[in-house]
Fold this protein.
Amino acid sequence: MADYSIVGRPVDRRDAVQKVTGRVLHVGNMEPAGLLHVAVLRSPHPHARIVRIDKSRAEAAPGVAAVLTGADIAAMPGITPYHGPAFADQPVLAIDRVRHEGEQVVAVAAESRRAAEEALELVEVEYEPLPVVLDVLDAIKPDAPIVHDEIRPSGAFADLAHVKAGERSNICYHYKLRKGDVDKAFAEADRIFEDVFTAPPAQHVPMEAHVSLAYVDEGGRINIHTASQSPSFVRGELARMLGVPMNRIRVRVPYLGGGYGAKLYNKLEPIVALLAMKTGRPVKYSLSREEEFQTVTKHGVVVKLKTAVKGSAMTARKCEVYWDTGAFAEIGPRIVHKSGYTSSGPYKIPNVSIDSYCVYTNKPPAGPFRGFGVPQVIWAYDSQMDIVARGLGADPVEFRLEHALEEGDLFVTGTPIHACGLKEAVRRAADAVGWDQPKAPASGSKRRGKGIACGVKAVLTPSISGAIVILNADGSANVLSSTVEMGQGSESLLAQIAAEELGMPFDRVHVVQPDTDVTPYDTISAGSRSTYHMGNAVRMAAAKVKEELFQAVAGKLEIDAADLESRDGRVFVRGAEERGMTVTEAFLAKFGSLGTTMVGEGLCQPVVTPMDPETGMSEKCTEYWFASASAVEVEVDTETGRLEVLQFHAAGDAGTAINPKYCEQQLVGAATMHLGLTLFEQMVFQDGQLLNGSLLDYQIASIKDVPAACHPIVVEVPHKDGPFGAKGIGETGALTVAAAVANALEDAVGVRVRDIPLTAERIHEALKAARKVNGGT
Amino acid sequence: MTIPAFDLLKPGSVAEASEMLLEHGDEARPIAGGTTLVILMKQRALRFSHLVDLQSIPGLERITDNDDGLSIGALATHRSVERSPLVQRRAPALAQAFSHVGNVRIRETASVGGNLAHADYRLDPPPALLVHGAEVVLAGAEGTRVVALKDFYRGMYETVLEPGEILVEVRVPHAAPAARTVYSRFSSLSANDWPCIGVAALLSLDNGNVGELALGLSGVAEAPLLAAGLERFQGESCSEELWDAVCDVVDEQLSPVSDLRGSADYKREMTRVWVRRTLRELAS
Ligand SMILES: Cc1cc2nc3c(=O)[nH]c(=O)nc-3n(C[C@H](O)[C@H](O)[C@H](O)COP(=O)(O)OP(=O)(O)OC[C@H]3O[C@@H](n4cnc5c(N)ncnc54)[C@H](O)[C@@H]3O)c2cc1C
């Protein structure tokens, strides 16, 4: 590895001590004087017409400052009452109709949370229930109830401008890929494998629930403090909705208590902004855990896969993916597109057809979730890879390695693969789990098995990150970046990158938290993009500052700036360290004063070649790939169906591990999170009503569910354009968990389950069905 | 959600608490650890203008060993039962059962009386108490009565507690020296979840034959259940066939409901699995 001073070192996180000692300021802790609290009345119906709302008694209730309905907002001059990143299909508060249980209908701002909640009980809403559509496959039938009669375009993202909703259909987006001649390949196939896989809607469960606070300052500007992963988006979208210039809105984001995709785009911000404008007082809205379940979910999917095999090669694959985006599209269309085009897998298959559909139903809206849809498609295709390998009598690891794409190969979209690390991840995960060692013997009713799965995600492209680096005359530096520190370690990592590039000590670099008044635009803190995009922007900005600094030193020493180097806050001549000066001396040399700064700006904006709308082909559909492999050993109780994961190995390609410790933590954290989703997490609906909308009944992985052996494997295949070769790794550990566990299940007890979660009862049913087929009891 | 406003009444004695409850009728409820009640009130599923704080009554948290059994005060916390050397020695299955409840924060707060009075159908502690033949002492305006725990439950979330009555003590008779007990909980989702079903067993062996046999179950009926009709197996020799026969008798008494943790059929099947496993373990 190159000779770096701080890149590649596992330095401790900046926020660690503050966080474990409970001294971090979250939005929830902010209590400005005169604060009003918000409570929102939500729809009890999954689909209904709003006949009448009477809020007069609530308005007269003690402590109530304002009561707002969707109709009130629509009547405000200059205000756009709808929002959404793909379509402007979501009203801030329901207008005329409610489309899912828990949709926000009436908002109250009052002196206390209790006063607001009590006022809600005085609001009368008359509903006329409408036919409900819940199942994603029912929703695409011609006679299905239609969730949206009219769809408004959104101006939020330029790359989504082409997204158009179908007319009078619940399909709001369709991605299509056609490569080769699929029909011919199926006609000529030796064997055809056909499977349907499903995954249910689920919850992100960040420790900190959604919370936003707004106030209008003395100058009439709208100030927002919010737990958001996308401060730049919030500012732009609010400016558009409120009809004010962007610089009339200031969005600040302190440390987040987790996000996982739940806190992207606009969530509570429009409500608090409107109520602050209406009351002239600071307003805070924080969701209860129960409300979280009604706010945003992980997309449930049905994935139909059909694969043709000739000899030992896969010759064709047909993928149909139906994404349940719930009542509002949210970012669904982008997920359907970006994950859709990877749904045939990172494998050599000459003929491929993909149809990926974004479908409205009367469920809470589905949005981004660690992995952006890719875990759902890998769950399907890498379960089927195992089915095919076993069907052909091939070793699942060898079969994957034989078919895996590598450097220079074309992905199914026609984009060449660069720096992917897929094969290395598979090999190392397989070695770690002892793939070649014999299976552990059965013990009583328990059977053990091993499983592997792999897959890739393509980073969201295009997207933009801007950064500014300011070098102070004493050699300390400030980094201005809108990347949100939500637990992933970006703050410390960006400081490492700036320190390395400047040649300054790590502890002299301060990263400013997102504040749209000062930190430049950034698309989102999500999708494993910040290390690469913001990392590059920070590095570029630092390089510009360094250039100015070196010029100052070169002028004074009368040498060429190209001969200079900096380390530990000192600039010197390469090879002659005694000839040099401190930053302060350089400032004096250049400015004759210390009262100034050197400022550099960096921008990272990877581009794509737009996909052909009919074939889905693009010479460049993404900036980089990240590969994931999981290898697990499980033990299944054949009498109860309960599956326990005994060891877990999560491998992921980080490009270059700027901070190996954070990479390991991300791999294990993501794998653990998805272990819960694999084994028991699901939102259960009955007639459109959520049955397990609280943590008493919705289970996430507890410490008792995490295997004692849970090992990260950091693969490093440097990317030519990554900052020091780095790529993202925040989602990688999540991608391949479900398929690996299902594959191990089959290895252990010979049954294939195609629906997650792999609950004990599901496995028990599958075992019973298998015994029946085999003529047992 | 916030909890609606209420008055917290602080009685100094059981009699006073009972009076307070009677005075406010349906508007009042006793509160012990509050781990269940507070959630239900925050969800606004239940509403009371007055809560009578049983924690302010001195002496209700004691655990003592009497000649014939353990006496556990209704306000003893789950944690204190789980960690009590007395309980661990006299009724290990009971210590085990309490140790499974929720997490340490819940167990430090939740009370034995609250667990029983809540009368949820899938709690951990009741089966272990049932196999010991536990009794509950109920104190009210009319005086005190003692009710067998198996007769305490009337249905889902329903007990025989009369208005103004408070559960003050749980009596756990000592098992015969030859008897062994065990509690098995089966979670079908997270290992940390409430049980899908729970099975407690008490078995004594007499020359390899069944002596005393009791099975307590939770999650498989509207309320915790003590299996009836097991006397008939006394004197039989332990075998897989015998356990099957026991399972058949138990099965007839089940009336499981389907819920998030399993369908009714699955719970039935799991009861068979865990009754057999539990008896095997005790007989070995
Ligand atoms: C997060 C969580 C996880 C849990 N996990 C489990 C689990 O894994 N296994 C399990 O078995 N249980 C579990 N529980 C339930 C737990 O056992 C009960 O919440 C607890 O036992 C109730 O005791 P308490 O003292 O807090 O009762 P409270 O909440 O104070 O009262 C409960 C009810 O009993 C009444 N009451 C209380 N004391 C008396 C009395 N002495 N006389 C008459 N009436 C009374 C109250 O009026 C109220 O109706 C869990 C609970 C939570 C919140």
Q: What stands out?
A: Residues 297-410+417-461+611-773 of chain A form a domain with the Aldehyde Oxidoreductase; domain 4 fold (CATH 3.30.365.10). Chain A touches chain B at residues 112-114, 117-118, 288, 290, 639-640, 642, 676, 679-680, 684, 691-692, 696-697, 699-705, 759-761, 764 (CB under 8 Å). The first helix of chain A runs from residue 16 to 20.
